[in-house]
Amino acid sequence: MSTLNATTGRAKRPAQKITLVGVDVYVITEDGIPKFDEYGPFKIEFISNRGTKVWPGYVSPDLMLVNWYRCRFTATRPVTDKDVDQFVSELGKKYLWSAVQKLWNYGDEAGYSKAY
Amino acid sequence: MLPGEGTGPEICEAVRRVIDHSGVDITWEYEEIGLDCLKEHGTLLPEKTIKSIAKNKIAIKGPTTTPVGTGHKSANVTLRKMFDLYANVRPAKLIPVLKRPWDKIDILSFRENTEDSYAAIEHMVSNEVAQCLKVITWPGSVRIAEFAFKWAKANNRKKIQCVHKANIMKMTDGLFLEAFREVAKKYPEIESGDIIVDNCSMQLVRNPGQFDCLVLPNLYGDILSDLCAGLVGGLGFAPGANIGDNCSIFEAVHGSAPKYAGMKKVNPSAVLLSGVMMLKWINEHKAAERIEKAVDKVLAEAKHLTYDAGGTASTDEYADAIIRAMDTV
Fold it and tell me: Are B127 and A106 inside 8 Å of each other by CB?
């Protein structure tokens, strides 16, 4: 098993240029589907609940909603971490949020999924 | 009727002929879905199809294709999520003509159909690390458990087991199991218990006859219901129902088998048996039983079997044999 023992380090995946293009914010509210204005360079793209898109577009009246929404905001211009900090600070004045996930493009590929 | 793509249209046409011959009066509305639709209209699920399902509140669907790794999202999952079809019911019952090494299998899987790692929340959090959120909710877990116990009670089933991995995923699967136990208290007449998913997989292949009803989170349900289908004879005979509070879509477990498209050789049984589930769901029991008996007769005679069951009959010849058998059962 010399080949296993000869491993010189962990497997590495080639690095790619990353570009910050938005954020997913996980908002907790009992007041139904949140409504957002534009926050500086971030614009709401969609809101999902349990992974199902609930804004914009058709929403079945039967759809069961829980009190936790994924709100995807996309950047309308090149943004930095400082923009994210300010954005989250502003959003936090109105909504309780549980997590914020940065959205990066890796090269030309989106490093995040869309909602159903 | 959503014929889908690949072998879907030829299967669905055979199924429609059989159902129409069963005595039930259905006015079919045909709507498009799937990859062909994407090429033609730029969407997997056109607005017209959505409106038709929303209006009729019931559909039978042929298979559609979902690419692996990249590309468009699954039309199936989109439908389940859009109409909140939270209960995926998949029966697996032995078919005598398909010789299997078991004396008895009659397993009913109730798969939670809208949550778990199917919430489509995935991120590349570094160039080397991908994450997928596994979303399990209390109301989502309670309602699938409620659904399973109600179905079991109505259909005289004796035992339900919750399948989980709560020893490791203590919060997500733990919540699912806690909800199941809470609901089980309301149904003391039905024996309830739980089993860890890996042990369940092993027990299923060793002694499938011990199982009655299984309640599972989405991913385990997807995998184990296919395993159950394999135990009884493969996906060609595996029907399924996607049921919500106000809408239901019935579909086979199998895919669209594009390499066989147009050859009219695939087995339509899975979609047909999904149609039988649909007829029962809308209380057309007489028509449903007539089809079931005819299918049993054709399989028992073994003269008109499709290739997957060891025969040479085409899709249409098999359907014609069932139609003829319906006149004698």
Answer: yes
Question: Is any Cβ of chain B less than 8 angstroms from the Cβ of A30?
Answer: no
B225-278 pLDDT, tens per residue?
Answer: 999 999 998 888 899 999 999 999 999 888 788 888 888 999 999 999 999 999
DSSP string, B296-322: HHHHHHTSS--GGGT----HHHHHHHH
ipTM score assigned to the predicted complex = 0.91
Q: What are the Cα distances from residue B146, in Å, to A21, B192, B200?
A: 42, 13, 21
Report the length, in residues, of chain A: 116
Fold of B101-232: Isopropylmalate Dehydrogenase (3.40.718)
**Does the B1-88+236-329 domain belong in CATH 3.20.20.30?**
no
Q: How many domains does chain A have?
A: 1
Any B CB within 8 A of A13 CB: yes
Nearest chain A residue (CA) to B244: A62
The reply to whether B57 belongs to the active site is no
Q: Is the peptide bond before A56 cis (omega within 30 degrees of 0)?
A: yes
Q: CATH number of the domain at A23, please.
A: 3.30.70.1570
Interval A30-66: pLDDT, tens: 999 999 977 789 999 999 999 888 999 878 787 899 9
Query: Which residue among A14, A50, A60 places its CB closest to the CB of B137?
Result: A50
Is B222 known to be catalytic? yes
For residue B247, give the chain A residue with the closest CA. Answer: A62
